[in-house]
Design goal:
The complex is a heterodimer of chains A (568) and B (504).
Chain A (H helix, E strand, L loop, with lengths): L11 E5 H8 L7 H8 L4 E7 L2 E6 L10 H11 L13 E9 L9 E8 L5 H18 L6 E7 L7 E6 L5 E2 L8 E2 H7 L1 H6 L9 E6 L4 E4 L3 E2 L13 E7 L2 H17 L3 E8 L7 E4 L5 E6 H8 L5 H10 L3 E4 L3 E6 L9 H12 L19 H15 L3 E2 L5 E2 L1 H4 L23 E2 L4 H9 L8 E12 L7 E12 L5 H14 L5 E4 L5 E11 L2 E9 L1 H6 L6 E7 H6 L1
Chain B lengths: L5 H10 L4 E3 H8 L3 H13 L3 E13 L1 H9 L2 H11 L3 E3 L3 H5 L3 H13 L4 E5 L2 E5 L8 H9 L4 E2 L5 H11 L5 E13 L1 H9 L6 E2 L4 H6 L6 E2 L18 H15 L3 E2 L5 E3 H4 L32 H13 L14 H4 L2 E3 L4 H9 L7 E10 L11 E10 L5 H14 L5 E6 L5 E11 L3 E11 L1 H4 L8 E6 L1 H8 L13 H6 L4
Parallel strand pairs in B: 8-9, 10-13
Antiparallel strand pairs in B: 1-7, 2-6, 2-7, 3-5, 4-5, 11-12, 13-14, 14-18, 15-16, 16-17, 17-18
Helix pairs in contact in B: 1-10, 5-7, 8-9
Classes of the chains: A alpha+beta (568), B alpha+beta (504).
Chain lengths: 568, 504
């Protein structure tokens, strides 16, 4: 729930300040902080403002309609009261473009949608906006082109009817975008950067999708790459063909809607295409479809959720500012949801928009009067006790990473490798698994401080992770304490005195039993027992271990399983 | 005349008769430790009463190859000896066999034997034959080796013959080892001698008050030496909390005071709680391997105790179930839900708490949890970090109450002067809000995110009252307060820094 968490993939869009002003139809503040205030209506924040280019982070990963300057302007017009209520988009007519689909595609990439936009004036900025939108939709909403991908073409060069078919990887070759030589589909997958990036989507199929016209000209190899001849859209292009292919018909239609309404906002006229499917349950589909959905929400729900006292007029006014169509009675509000609002899944999505338009900062915060008793967990209470004793004994607390690698946990500690929780997608070789004991982390810490004055006495109370077949996660977090005392005459007895003092202060008895352990010196190593159960280990560190970590100072320490000693 | 330290007096007395003695001699005569001699000598020399002279000398010892020579003889002698044993004559290619030396050593041995004129070459039937007449005399280099076998020699003290031997051996690798050593001499200056003569009797002076002195009453008879109280002393370091941990402790204390109870969870988490129960669709981009660590083995956990909830969540994802939502309309895999991951955000604990039988309504909960993301560690990224998150559960809670909770946190935890809310987005909350706090001297800081859990989150988990979910971005607050600009410092490896951190 915090930005640092980064669970969301935040789209960033670049807009020209004047272009945005023109599209909104109002002056906007140039000062980034004030502009961010206005952009907060679209969950936008100014990231940078240089040379008239505003980089806006849109903090909503579920609103692709806002990932373009036209969408942002459309919404701001409502919020600022310049143009309120539903904006109607219409299809001017049928472009007479037919698209015929090959039955083989049903199991490969079954759906396609298309539209023709005429008389678009794509200056450089608008064109860049469209291409950015296309990339963002492919990446996020299209799930990296797996679910949907978009193609744009110079319509004047295309000779309909069009064919969406499936061919063998070596059957066809063409010049892919930004290349000058012909390549077969197979070669594109092997050599073209887009082929390398997205090839996995089609790689395992025997037939791959291809989009052609009546003169056998190749438009594109969806979802990988357009042809360099037909699929290159420049400023001079006036009539654009848009095509979306994918695995989900609904997502595809939504994507096509979002791109086409954006171009319509730029003055383009939209013409439909007819898709002929040979499938059992889908036959002929006309695309795009600008269908607004109707939703009915109980009136009282708005105030129940927002905690406000909004009148019927307040509710409908704010809905219209958010570009919904709305009419209300004391019982229910009937809402028309614009065709491009693909994020609306539930009444709460609409109610949030009312809250946003009302203004979050106009809502007076109220601390909920709930009688509850606060408490820290048992584990933390015990940890805090132990920390108090260790600090009293003169040890400096440290905090280290719980992710590490097997070399640090085992090889450098001179012990046999054991099974630990490893991740299957490590980012670096340093962090590949979760630690199962703490002492290696402390030794690593000391190895970074050999230039610092001795004696060095450090401890940490932290979790380790062990396998546990009975647990639903097949693992268990174990709270442990470990300490190391490092100086020129550090030895077993001195550290045992610390252990004695710790157990005395925790009002517990323990015994030691001599054991052999690769990390410690033989004859100076003991396992720590409480009521006959092993709860830890104590010893003087093996000089070979010290050598591995480039430590030149005698060191002794212990590690205790806190969960266990308080369970017993 | 200036007062002398006891050690200075001892030194002056030791040198009074001879004026110039070696360091070792002074030590023995004055009956004090080497350390004490050094210290007192430095003090006296700074007063121009004493001169410290250094005499350089070079110690020569045997290296690894030298030790071998002492044991087996120099290579050329081994070679010549073995030729003599073969009737004074051998083919060049037989040398290794008869001498037992490696080919490499044979080459070296021939070189040196030739230089020492111990052998002759002859062509016989097109082949090279080596001839040796008699056992050669022992040369200076071998004599030096003999001497060195007893320990070491001092270069500056060698006679001419041994020096010749040294020159020869120096050019052979690893035969000799050289060490520079300095001998120290202490000599009184004229002023020093004068001072030494004036010292007649050491006054009974003690530096340490002992139990014996106190108990015997003898402390009355002695004089306790004055200290230079301004002199620097050795460092001493207390045991302390790690500063970031202390910060989290203080935070925890505040949350408990507000009535929040700590939640429990585990580092390895079921995908179900990490994502699915939070209404994040299974093909959501944030769920890809770039954003969540997957456990390698075993890859799946056990969802059997949550059958009912998993069924509800599955239906909600697919078609909205009873929640009034359209759902994601994508296929839902229970197998995928059982995947094991490293917890990627603290909200997973909140989801767990909602299914917990002990959930109290009304209830307030928090957690400080270690979370993991596959990032390369640098000054602004960590691959593991702590998140502070929580929920407030209660009938009739509204968005206004949510803002109330955030407002409290901003004012009490971040000590903010002003608070600001802006719309935000999280897959699991609606409405969602971002919290910023304004603090004098710091400006606006993003301090947290929050929202009301979506019905698609609560209802499938059996909770039919509103739930406020919040998270605080406290790391930035800590870094600002401590003027830290490298996020790795939260888990600092710098002991010196930890020791020198003040407690305020």
């Amino acid at each position: 729930m915090v930005a640092e968490a980064g669970v969301e993939i935040m789209p960033t869009i670049e807009v020209i300040f004047n272009d945005l002003q023109r599209l909104v139809g109002s002056r906007l503040p140039r000062e980034p902080e004030k502009l961010s205030e206005v952009l907060s209506y679209v969950k936008g924040e100014v990231e940078s403002f240089e040379d008239e280019v505003v980089k806006i982070e849109i903090k909503d990963g579920n609103r692709p309609d806002l990932w373009t300057v036209e969408g942002v302007a459309r919404e701001l017009k409502g919020a600022l009261g310049i143009e309120k209520g539903l904006k109607a988009y219409k299809v001017e007519g049928y472009s007479t473009v037919e698209v015929h689909v090959d039955p083989k595609l049903e199991k490969i990439r079954p759906y396609i949608g298309a539209a023709v936009i005429k008389n678009v004036k794509l200056n450089n900025d608008a064109l860049r906006g469209v291409i950015n939108l296309q990339e963002k939709l492919d990446q996020t909403y299209g799930r990296k082109r797996k679910r949907t991908s978009i193609g744009l073409y110079n319509f004047d060069l295309v000779k309909p009817p069009l064919y969406y078919s499936a061919v063998k990887p070596t059957a066809v070759s063409f010049v892919p975008l930004d290349f000058s030589e012909k390549m077969s589909l197979k070669e594109i997958l092997e050599k073209h950067p887009k082929g390398l990036e997205f090839g996995h989507i089609v790689k395992n199929q025997h037939f791959w999708p291809i989009f052609t016209d009546s003169k056998d000209q190749i438009l594109s190899f969806p979802p990988i790459i357009n042809s360099n001849d037909l699929g290159k859209v420049t400023e001079e292009v006036e009539n654009v063909l848009i095509e979306v292919t994918g695995t989900s018909l609904e997502t595809l239609m939504n994507t096509l809607t979002i791109v086409t309404v954006s171009l319509a906002d730029r003055g383009g006229k939209i013409y439909s295409a007819k898709i002929f499917y040979p499938y059992k349950d889908v036959k002929t589909v006309v695309t795009p479809k600008f269908e607004n959905k109707t939703m009915t929400i109980p009136t009282k729900l708005f105030n129940e959720i927002l905690g406000l006292n909004l009148s019927l007029k307040d509710i409908t006014d704010n809905l219209k500012k958010a570009r919904y169509g709305a009419s209300a009675t004391p019982e229910r509000v009937i809402i028309e949801v614009p065709c491009y609002r693909v994020d609306i899944m539930h009444a709460v999505d609409v109610i949030e928009d009312v809250g946003i338009m009302y203004g979050y900062n106009n809502i007076e915060p109220r601390w909920p009067q709930l009688a509850t008793i606060g408490e820290t967990s048992q584990k933390e209470k015990i940890s805090d006790l132990v920390r108090e004793v260790m600090i009293g004994l003169g040890f400096q607390e440290v905090l280290t990473f719980s992710m590490t690698n097997k070399e640090h946990l085992f090889d450098k500690m001179c012990v046999e490798k054991m099974a630990v929780v490893e991740v299957s997608n490590p980012k670096t070789l340093t962090y590949t698994c979760l630690r199962n004991w703490l002492i290696p982390s402390l030794i690593e810490f000391l190895s970074n401080n050999t230039h610092v004055e001795y004696p060095q006495k450090i401890f940490e109370v932290s979790d380790c992770v062990l396998f546990d077949e009975r647990s639903e996660t097949k693992t268990r977090d174990v709270r442990k304490l470990a300490c190391i005392n490092s100086h020129s005459t550090s030895n077993f007895n001195e550290t045992k005195a610390v252990l004695d003092s710790l157990f005395l202060n925790l009002a517990l008895n323990y015994q030691l039993e001599e054991i052999r352990h690769g990390s410690f010196i033989e004859g100076r190593t003991g396992k720590i027992l409480v009521k006959g159960e092993k709860v830890g280990i104590i010893g003087e560190l093996n000089p070979e271990v010290l050598e591995h970590w480039k430590l030149g100072t005698p060191s002794a320490g212990f590690e205790v399983d806190l969960d266990k000693i308080f369970e017993i | 005349m200036a007062e002398f330290h006891q050690l200075e007096i001892k030194l002056l007395q030791a040198l009074r008769e001879d004026c110039r003695l070696s360091f070792e001699e002074v030590k023995d005569k004055a009956c004090i430790s080497g350390d004490s001699v050094s210290r007192a000598a430095l003090w006296l020399s700074s007063k121009n009463l004493l001169k410290i002279e250094r005499k350089q000398r070079t110690i020569v010892q045997l290296g690894s190859e030298g030790k071998r020579f002492v044991k087996e003889g120099v290579l050329e002698r081994i070679l010549v000896q073995s030729i003599l044993e073969a009737d004074g004559k051998s083919l060049i290619e037989d040398l290794s066999k008869i001498s037992g030396l490696s080919d490499e050593d044979v080459k070296i041995a021939i070189g040196w034997a030739r230089r020492k004129k111990w052998l002759r070459f002859k062509k016989e039937e097109g082949k090279t034959v080596l001839l040796v007449q008699s056992t050669p005399d022992v040369e200076p280099d071998e004599k030096l080796l003999e001497v060195l076998n007893k320990g070491y020699v001092i270069l500056e003290e060698l006679d001419n013959e041994l020096l010749t031997g040294l020159e020869a051996l120096k050019s052979r690798p690893n035969v000799l080892v050289f060490k520079e050593e300095a001998d120290r001499f202490l000599a009184l200056t004229d002023k020093g001698l004068e001072a030494a003569k004036k010292i007649t009797k050491i006054k009974e002076e003690a530096s340490q008050l002992t139990p014996e002195l106190i108990q015997s009453g003898n402390w009355r008879q002695i004089k306790l030496r004055k200290y230079n109280i301004k002199a620097p002393v050795s460092n001493t370091w207390p045991g302390k909390k790690q500063p970031y941990k202390r910060f989290l402790d203080e935070l925890k204390e505040k949350l408990v005071a507000f009535g929040f109870k700590e939640m429990a969870g585990s580092i390895v988490e079921l995908m179900f709680f990490n994502c699915d129960a939070l209404f994040m669709p299974q093909d959501h981009p944030a769920r890809e391997i770039h954003d969540i660590y997957l456990v390698k083995e075993p890859r799946h956990g056990d969802l059997s105790s949550y059958r009912k909830f998993v069924g509800n969540v599955k239906n909600t994802h697919q078609d909205g179930w009873k929640t009034g939502s359209t759902g994601w309309k994508s296929r839902y895999s229970i197998r995928e839900a059982s995947s094991l991951v490293l917890r990627s955000h603290g909200t997973a604990l909140s989801a767990r708490t909602l299914v917990n039988k002990g959930l109290e309504i009304p209830g307030k909960y928090f957690s400080i949890s270690r979370c993991y993301r596959p990032d390369v560690v640098d000054r602004s990224h960590l691959t593991e970090f702590n998140q502070i998150e929580g929920i407030v559960v209660g009938k009739e809670l509204t968005f206004r109450d949510l803002l109330g909770v955030l407002d409290k946190f901003a004012r009490e935890v971040a000590e903010a002067d002003k608070v600001r809310f802006r719309p935000d987005y999280f897959p699991f909350t609606e409405p969602s809000v971002e919290l910023s706090a304004f603090k004098k001297g710091y400006g606006w800081v993003e301090f947290g995110g929050a929202g009301l859990f979506r019905p698609e989150v609560c209802l499938p988990l059996g909770v039919d009252v509103p739930v406020i979910a919040w998270g605080l971005g406290v790391d930035r607050l800590f870094m600002m307060k401590g003027e830290i600009d490298d996020i790795r410092s939260l888990f600092t490896r710098d002991l010196e820094w930890l020791r020198r951190q003040g407690l305020r």
